[in-house]
Give the backbone structure.
Amino acid sequence: MMDLSAYRDIFIEELNDQLERMDQSLLALELSPSVELVQTLFRAAHTIKGSASTMDFRELSDLTHEVEYALEWVREKKPEMNSELIDTLFRSLDAMKVLRDQYIRGEAYADFRAVVREIKDLIQTPTVVGQLKIPQLQPLESIMAQVAIVSGKQLMSIHVVLEQKCMMKAARYHILRQRIEDICGTVVATSLMESQPGAQNEDDHYGQFIIIVATSKDPQQLKAELSSDSDIHMLEIDPYLLESNEVAATSAPLELISETEQTKPSVTTAATTGPEEKVKTAQPTVRVSVERLDHLMNLVGELLIDQTSLADLSGSGARKESSTLIRSISGVSDHMGRVIKELQEGVMKTRMLPIDQLFSRFPRLVRDLSQKLGKDLELVIQGGETELDRMIIEELSDPLIHLIRNSADHGIESAEVRAELGKPSKGRITLTSFHEENHVVIRYSDDGKGIDGEKIKASALGKGIISEEQAARLTTEEAVHLIFEPGFSTASSVSEVSGRGVGMDIVRSQIGRLNGIIDIDTEVGVGTTFTIRLPLTLAIIKGLLVKVSGRVLILPMYNVAEIVRISPEDIQMIQGQQAILNHGRIVPFHRLCDRLNYPRTDRKSKTIPLVIVRSVDKIAAYAVDEIIGNQEVVIKTLGTYLGAMNHLSGATILGNGKVALILDASYLVSL
């Protein structure tokens, strides 16, 4: 058999794209039904089914076949796009996503036969008088079925309903059964319609029947070959899945299939090529336009020309005057610097993705929350074309999900309350992103009831998060930031959506790990806005170089709020802790050498250089020995062999070849 492991990552990437396309198209279809959207859904389902079948991912292929059949029914019958239809399609899509995740993790596949039955009920398969049961395989039939499966065939259920006017239905049944056996090769089992009490015509017993076959042909091919018979009123061909008891019934005579079983993967697990492949996760990938790659190739070409120029200068150096040689080398060096700068920017752009790849996941979340909470919610997305580092986009998903859940559950009022307040019945959540200097700003807002700082303060005091003395000093604006404290919640009851007091502290810690900053602007009765500022990338940063105890350390510039010089008299003792006043705000004061357990050096200057560090919503002032300046640095990871180094986010190599450590601002302000 062909080794498919080489195509696994490509398959997963394409599968993710198609599932995302189906998700967006379904959301759009619910809002504005159109033939084009149904066609888009059908094409995506057809692509997934074909790819899954190629990768021998039968569970997904079979389920997607049912979804494709339902979409074909929608395309042909053009039914009303009611909530039952849309919800069923969404549940089918969720089942496909679960199978994808299980395939990636190498887990046993979930049983989604209930979803398949729901799809069949939805499309209203034609019925006839009488009862027809799906065949229950006997032990010998089960053995035949499993032998066929391990030899590369698949089980199909062929449901035939004959025309009411068909004469001699029994004869037609036997003719069709023989024809099906000739086309497929193996008939595993057959089920006929049960005779009704008092039936006068025994021939009606053959009016409809189900035949289970083992075949290597796909359902469309079988349907094309069988549907030409004029006596067939309805023909339905679906994959047939073995029941667990049918598999168990064959546990004794396994000798019949043990030899072939060794060469095929199990049909109930996500195995594709062996145990090693089962636990293999998909490798992260980034799609890069050919235009960007061509630009990088041109820049590399220019560097090669500069390399040749330097080699020529090296060879002719003895024959040239030193001043001429220096000017030539300086010119080549300047050009190389410009090219390297452009090359650096080009490589950074290859890591960038439009943030819409993240934002596009949330309309479905808002829709589900709207149904679950019984609120009419609307999500408005702006600035989806803003580009951000791929790694930051992935890490940003959980914080935004927490914000959306909290807004939907606690922030936005019910339609009745909004009507009393004179607000539109539909609550609005807005997600906006844009570039601001070397940062990306994400603004999240809702038009709900806002955050009451006094209520927050009272709740924090009651839970023991702050003392009465601290509460007295807190302004209303500062009290609002208490929602980021672990375990804080003002919810009167725990709901399925939120209210456990574990959401907003996760938001703060995640943003902090990304070297970001979060601000809150809220007005009671009007709404709340969260503003998140993030670096464009975590691979290359602009850092502030400082000297502490003879060592050069680096602080990320996006965490540096201000650089000031103070005199020793400006340091005050407030509640037993050193602090300074900065623009009327009390800021904790620390000496960086003390925090890092470095020895203190003698201070020669009368003033103290001070770096005010900010991370998320916290701030602290750190005294250093010397401010060197800022420059762009490439972050290198320290590796796991150093153990837990919470105060460091990495290291870099300076122009003189020495290593400088990069401090983690979120750790420093949390001390």
